[in-house]
Amino acid sequence: MSRKALHDAMRDIEADTQTNSYILVIADIDHFKLVNDNFGHQHGDVCLIAFSEILQSECEPNTVFRYGGDEFCLLFCNAEMEQVVAACWRMLRKVEALRFEAKPESTLTASFGIAAFHLPMNAAQLFVQADQALYQAKEARNTVCVYEP
């Protein structure tokens, strides 16, 4: 799903905070530019498709959004933080296990940043917190980080 669909979903979160809880995950492939530089953009596209399929395998339909480049947002509704963290670790392990027949020397890792929606925050603040958690994860690479104030 697209960036516009994500913005629509984030707007819906703000309107629906009384009945549901939300957790946002921002995920991206570590050193994706190097994948494109070393193996070509066609292989980069293959990697993006494989990555998105892994993300979709752990999420409900219509909750995975490509935000830009190799960055994806995952929106979990009424899930416990422990469940989301466990799902992210499963996705990370699946990414590590990816092998590409055409480029067997190509391996991938990914980083995940997680934040929970809490009143009185708005959707933009939720995104900023998930992005900060992703930034922390990207410093270590190949890990999952939860936003902590």
UniProtKB/TrEMBL annotation:
Pfam family, one: GGDEF
GGDEF domain boundaries: 20-149
UniProt-recorded Gene Ontology molecular function terms: diguanylate cyclase activity
EC number: 2.7.7.65
Assigned keywords, A-Z: Nucleotidyltransferase, Transferase
Protein name: Putative diguanylate cyclase DgcC
